[in-house]
Amino acid sequence: MHEPSDLAQITRRNFLSSALGVAITSTLLPVATWGTGCTPRGMGGQAPGGQAPGDQAQTDGAGPSPSDTHPMPLGFVGHGAPTLAIDPGKGGDLTRWATNMRRPKAILAISAHWEETPATAGTIRMRELLYDFYGFPKELYELEYPAPAAPDLARQLNSLIPGGIQQKDRTWDHGVWVPLIHMAPDADIPVLQLSLPSHAGPQALFDLGRKLASLQNEGVFIMGSGNVVHNLRQLNWAGGPPPAWASEYDHWVFETLSSQNYDALVDYRQKSPGLRIAHPTEEHFQPLLVVAGAASVRGNQASYPVEGFEFGSISRRCVQFG
Q1: What global pTM score does this model have?
Q2: Is 100 left (phi over 0), alpha (psi -120 to 50) or beta?
Q3: What pLDDT, in 10s, does the model give residues 186-213?
Q4: Alpha carbon of 35 to those of 31, 42, 100, 232: distances in Å?
Q5: What pairs with residue 309 in β-bridges?
Q6: Could you please report the per-residue DSSP string of 218-232?
Q7: CA distances from 149 to 101, 105, 204 (A)
Q8: Cα torsion at 243, 306, 279, 301 (round to 10°)?
Q9: What is the phi/psi pair of residue 319, to 5°?
Q10: How far apart are the first and last CA of the chain?
Q11: Do 265 and 256 form a contact (C-beta atoms < 8 A)?
């Protein structure tokens, strides 16, 4: 993970000052989305059905399984800062997006905040969350997301990836649970995190997505979590429009995905404009390669349920394929 020093700088610059324009609260309004609506739970709360957060989940849920002719869409989420979890304004955009998709049977999440090569499956039992940030409001450390784990999905990955897949008892980082608090607030859809094998290179990430594509037919929502533009050192605390370099990079991604120019996407190190200022490190961009790889199998068209910027240098763009 590349963020700690940057997040420390953000905290010292009063990240949660009035520039955020949001009320810091540990309670979100109930909404109708993939679940029937709930609020994020504080530590010590109960999972759906009264299950305690530490109890092991053994099932993958009972959501409908789409047929081969109606595969589950794929998604890339711009997760921004951890404070998204307690921001009902920005979180509401994710809620509206999820409301317009069918309920998945399970969620396979690939986050910018777990880089491990080769691709490795995370925990297959319910555990407390990983609060992989510091210096933020205590409300964030009191949130929990007690969704069931997805051991069946972990086993299924072994049949999709040649040579099988490693597994570690690593719990979900904020790139997973922060967006899901808004997208699936009932925390009743099984979740499995898959590491981002960044050291394998862009083509291998894209090819990994192609290997995972058939999970769409099983009702699995493959969710990449990062940001299309992510430079914490160039934040504009005063607000206003993004700088030209940020808009240019965001628009390049928009055009590249809309035209399904996956060769250019995979070759982003050579083809994208101003990569090093848009992404001083690349881990927030790379989950998009995995999801795009899966989308390329069926030729899924891209749409953009959330767009815009926060603080100039963080793109909020979310992408839905299919």
Answers
A1: 0.83
A2: alpha
A3: 999 999 999 999 999 999 999 999 999 9
A4: 9, 18, 12, 33
A5: 315
A6: GTEEEEEEE-SSB-G
A7: 21, 12, 26
A8: -120
A9: -125, 130
A10: 30
A11: yes
